[in-house]
Amino acid sequence: MVGESREPDTESGPLEGITVLDASRVLAAPFCTMQLGDLGADVIKVERPGTGDQTRGWHPPIYGESGESAYYVSINRNKRSITLDLSSEEGRDIFRTLAWDADVLVENFRVGKMEEWDLGYEALREENPGLVYAHITGYGEWGPAADRPAYDIVMQAEGGMMSITGTEDGEPVRVGVAIADIGAGMYATQAILAALTHRERDESGHGQKIDVSLFDGQVAWMTYMASYYFATGIPPGRMGSKHPTIAPYQSFETADDHLVIAVSSEHIWPRFCEAIGRSELLEDARFSTNSERVANREKLDEILEPVLKERTAGEWVDIFEQAEVPASPVRDMSAVFDDPQLTHRGMVASVDHPTGETIEMPASPMFLSQTPTSIRHHPPMLGEHTREILEEAGYQQAAIDRFDAEDIV
Predict the structure, then answer these.
(1) Do 89 and 180 belong to one domain?
(2) Which of 267, 296, 329 is the last residue of a domain?
(3) Residues 31 and 57 reside in one and the same domain
(4) Are residues 44 and 138 in the same domain?
(5) Nearest to 98 by CA among 110, 112, 83, 111
(6) What are phi and psi of 338, to 5 degrees?
């Protein structure tokens, strides 16, 4: 299932023994809990009876016989699914029982909803003071926008990403994956791991509350673009694939396809000029340093564009590889997952599904030498582990049968 470099020295991941109660849906929080599952945690995914996570219905495409949404599958491996009706008092009682035994709780309900149900952090930590409680929302738990709903495309627009994505004379462009959600999920994962570490070191053994928002995460991801604004007072604009402070560092048209070239240092510039057969550029004062090349970017582009159209992207890649100039064609998913580097690294994983189907997916990019990540469980079918989880929590068969009959689970 995974490459040789993922073979563990022990039987478990670094989070073995950690139980995560995952009361989340869609993308940001499920992406967070999937990472925790990859690291070895037991993730219990709580879903609404009958419908479950909304992404189960986000199709096509689906995976063959399983009928599972490709979107849902992408972020829900290494989890067990239990259905619970949290709108019922008995469903909430079951949830409390699970939360009192959990190390981590992750949820992304609107601000105040869990408190309405008496399932908020303050209520749950009375019985479980070690609980690490992570709440992921659109705008955070306080502030004038706290109650607003959030969607990735809105976050990319509101957080500044779309102001710097797209061509200078074109319309703003959304990044092709929901990076506001994914970014928030990554920040939540980091915060949870930090809180677990603190709990381990703190004499009290207490957990804490974590508040992560899509908006905050998207703004934090502006990094050097935000610094450019603070340094100059001028908001950076859209430049297509170009870089505001490096040149040439962009996509060029070749005879058959687009090619990305990254001349990211003064050491690479001479090799680049010689590789394209234009060594005279090294004597041109307009391009003698990166700062000069950035200042004279348009003139440089006028020289480079016709030269790079003389060969195909593949031919240029071979030439630049020999010259040690970073370059790549713009590849689609088919080409990406045909890359031998990914195969060697074990980044193309597969997992068996109860339908008998094998589901392929990207593996975890986190490599740990002693306790590596792993894909141990398929993305669960709705409610697949309800009885198993309730039995582990101490419920008797008669009670579970009644919960089922009354649509509590």
Answers:
(1) yes
(2) 329
(3) yes
(4) yes
(5) 83
(6) -100, 5
Is residue 241 situated within a structural domain?
A: no
* pLDDT in the model for residue 143: 95
- Residue 376: phi, psi to the nearest 5? -100, -25
**Cα 73 from Cα 355, distance rounded (Å):** 14
| Region 287-312 average pLDDT | 97
Please indicate, yes or no, if residue 351 is contained in any of the structural domains: yes
Tens-place pLDDT, residues 175-229: 999 999 999 999 999 999 999 999 999 999 999 999 999 999 999 999 999 999 9
Q: Do 200 and 284 sit in the same domain of this protein?
A: no
C-alpha distance across the termini of the chain, in Å: 33
Q: Which residues constitute the domain of residue 124?
A: 4-221+339-405
Please check whether residues 294 and 388 belong to one and the same domain. no
Rounded Cα gap, residues 308 and 300, in angstroms:
12
CA–CA separation, 284 vs 267, rounded Å? 16
- Which amino acids are annotated catalytic? 181
How far is the C-alpha of 329 from the C-alpha of 306, rounded, in Å?
17
Handedness of CA 318, 321, 326, 330 (dihedral sign): positive
Inter-helix orientation angle 268-275/313-323, to 10°: 130
For residues 299 and 221, give the distance between their C-alpha atoms in angstroms, rounded to a whole number. Answer: 32
Strand 68-69 and strand 249-253: pairing? unpaired
CATH number, domain at 289?
A: 3.30.1540.10
- What total number of domains does the chain contain? 2
Contact by Cβ (8 Å): 47, 82: yes
In terms of domains, do 179 and 287 share one?
no
In the chain, DSSP finds a helix count (H) and a strand count (E) of 17, 13
Residues 64 and 156 in one domain: yes
List Cα–Cα distances, 193 to 98, 198, 201, 269, in angstroms: 20, 9, 13, 42
pTM (global) more than 0.90: yes
